[in-house]
């Protein structure tokens, strides 16, 4: 499938979609605490999304039953919120969410610690986040797609972590998942050449142990095969003729 190049108007709509999604993530982070259920997180996220006259990207997407993917500890992605899943001190929680604004999707994920978490978990979260920023150093017109993949994978693996291979980033726009697929591990080829106007959801998923994963019986929740803690970090990125623009993250929070 060809990679869509977004028009100026489409970029404006996606920028607003991303701005709203960043607000959703900030509000959810404020609500995180021991004792909250993952269903409470989902309900709050949907309420915030709809308060901006937007639609949750994930709700009923291919049958997914919630608005926010809430993945705890060894859960890599697609955790299904439940009133029975109560967060406790020391948990590591990944929140993945999407917003549809006037027909355009944004997609972003963040991983947080609940209360006091281990130093090992803190490092995993930080390395996962930084691996994204290592990758987008190459998210420039004229570079190649897998330059991003190689930078993410090389950085994360240098810490001995497992870079998930069964799941990847993707293009995003009028559809939640568009071409191209964006691996987070080192590839043996360069991939397509990046062009201004491409909008990409770049999302490292990094495990403390093995890169291998399993799908649970609910057919959604993905867990690390060795049940080691996992972290996830994602932003919607616009390729420009200069530096990339992060549509789901304000400049004040970006890091080199």
Main pleated-sheet profile: 5 strands, antiparallel
- How big is the Rg? 17 Å
**Apparent shape:** globular
The helix content, as a percent range, equals 25-40%
Distance between the termini: 32 Å
Structural class: alpha+beta
CATH topology: Creatine Amidinohydrolase
CATH level-two architecture: Alpha-Beta Complex
Q: Domain count, please report it.
A: 1
Q: CATH superfamily, please?
A: Creatinase/methionine aminopeptidase superfamily
Strand order of the largest sheet: 8-7-9-14-15
Instruction: State the assembly state of the protein chains.
Output: single chain
Order of helices and strands: HHEEEEEHHEEEEEEEEEE
How many H/I helices?
Answer: 4
């Amino acid at each position: 499938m060809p990679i869509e190049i977004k028009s100026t108007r489409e970029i404006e709509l996606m920028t607003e979609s991303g701005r709203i999604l960043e607000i959703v993530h900030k509000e959810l982070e404020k609500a995180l605490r021991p004792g909250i259920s993952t269903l409470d997180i989902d309900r709050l996220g949907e309420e915030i999304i709809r308060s901006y006259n937007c639609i949750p990207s994930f709700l009923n997407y291919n049958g997914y039953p919630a608005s926010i993917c809430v993945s705890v500890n060894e859960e890599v992605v697609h955790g299904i919120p439940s009133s029975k899943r109560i967060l406790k001190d020391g948990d590591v929680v990944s929140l993945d969410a999407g917003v549809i604004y006037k027909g355009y999707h944004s997609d972003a994920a963040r991983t947080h610690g609940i209360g006091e978490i281990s130093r090992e978990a803190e490092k995993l979260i930080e390395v996962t986040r930084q691996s994204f920023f290592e990758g987008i150093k190459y998210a420039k017109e004229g570079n190649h797609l897998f330059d991003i993949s190689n930078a993410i994978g090389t950085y994360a693996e240098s810490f001995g972590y497992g870079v998930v291979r069964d799941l990847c980033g993707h293009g995003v726009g009028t559809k939640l998942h568009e071409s191209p697929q964006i691996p987070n591990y080192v590839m043996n080829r360069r991939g397509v050449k990046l062009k201004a106007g491409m909008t990409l959801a770049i999302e490292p998923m990094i495990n403390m142990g093995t890169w291998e994963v399993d799908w649970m019986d609910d057919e959604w929740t993905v867990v690390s095969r060795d049940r080691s803690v996992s972290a996830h970090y994602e932003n919607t990125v616009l390729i420009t003729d200069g530096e990339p623009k992060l549509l789901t993250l304000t400049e004040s929070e970006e890091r080199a």
